[in-house]
Fold this sequence. Notes:
Number of helices: 16
Distance between the termini: 44 Å
Low-confidence stretches: 401-454
Radius of gyration: 29 Å
Strand content: 25-35%
Number of strands: 20
Largest sheet: 8 strands, mixed
Shape: elongated
Amino acid sequence: MALRVLVAWCPDWPVQAAGFPYEAPVAVMGKGRVVACSPAARAEGVTTGLRRREAQRRCSGLVLVDGDPDRDARAYEPVVAAVEALAPRVEILRPGECAFPAHGAARFHGGEQELVAKVAAAVDRALGGRGRCRAGIADGVFAAGLAARHGMLVPAGGSAGFLAPFGVATLDRPDLADLFTRLGLHTLGQLAALPGADLAARFGPEGIRAHRLASGEDERPGNPRRPPPDLLVATTIDPPAQRVDVAAFAAKALADQLSARLGRLGLACLSLRIEVETEHGERLARVWRHQDGFASQARRGAPSRAAAMAERVRWQLDGWLAGGAASQPSGAISRLVLAAEEVAADRGRQLGFWGEESERRERAIRAMARVQGMLGAEAVHTVELRGGRAPADRVAFTSQPGIAASGPIGPPTGGLPPGSTSPPAPRHDRSTRLPGPAWGGPPAAGRPRPGGQPAPWPGQVPAPAPAVVHPEPLAAEVVDATGAVVAVGGRGLASAPPSRLRIAGGPWTAITAWAGPWPVDERWWDPGLHRRLARLQVVTADGRAHLLKLSGGTWWIEATYD
């Protein structure tokens, strides 16, 4: 059974750390997008992920603040010190969230309910009544974190049932969650119901992790290995450092040493203990836990193991030296220690079938450059994604003399997503049909043309794109339940629900699902290129899915989904 854990979570911590009250409409920005916002801003429609201009459009009085992880960690140190006064072994999960084992502390303070109330009150005092804190208890850190966000105490052994309704996006693995969704796994309960061995065979360590979390277990099996004595690195700072940047520079070298030792032993660090000693003999220590276990292969786009360690050391040093907390050292730092508090086997990370994107791109570029040198620049073609409404219009082969300067090599973004083998099942209603025909107007400033970059194209069939686009469309017949040919009127509506399909004079097949139609009337200003048609998605009783088009009163099979 997983360990009972209490998680204390401060909502919208970047807003609190920036010193703004919740009543003010504030958004914290990172890389041009909203990463956190106050309740007042959310009430006006601001959400995380919005771009700057869109957030300002939704809330005219919005105050924008640049994100600063150092500031967030520095402001969080008084909160951790307040929680540490109530319970030992407090671990920081991230600035704004910490956790500690709840069993012993609950017995000491009179029960879990009383412990949660005392933690919330202590954090409120540390923030001077200007912030908020929610606490929750459950089996395991993951379930306790969600319990804190909902202010709940999950009974012992009830984490699996508590987690079941949550979506797979709560796993904080966007790529994996997207694939689960396309495979029909929308909730953690559905994921937990699958055999763990099957998920491990298909997704590797990531599948094992997802299944354990969805089942209410710890991210890694219990009884983590106690680290060997050599997984501790230390350095003496002479002269003692009073500035964060000086101490952080020493911490970077220590992080490199510790990461190298972990790599040689094939271990991942579950939690990192940071200790400092001042010139007056004072000692301070804090423990940081990392959701990826400071593994050698973190998530795509995440910093390396040594960089992640050094980052947390810098945050903690900033909190001690510049945070103004009660735990602030009385003198300059003369010694710095990093130690792996808990370790486990480093299973790495499941890579894509063809390797990492950057590595795949480099191999492809080198191979194509060699072929280009042998056959000539004009003999090598690459696939280019273009604008357009028809699947055949969106992909073109182009000859590019400078391959190394070309765009990313890979499948067009409009194709089937990775891991998908079939399109989403069309519905029997017209909910996916556009409100009206796609009247293509003449070219105007700012409007992309075929051959330009992808952009919104009214009348374009929604993703995913079909896997096979027929070079020559196949003649087809589509009839309704009475045997009459299905037509599409001037308002873009089908004359009747399609019932049967026949391809190239073959046998009739029942249509079990359909979506559309998507009417197109484009380039009416050019008689030579004027095209008026309608497209329809159908799924037949034999399990095949087709993209049909109606042109000149005749139905054609334009593409087929794999």
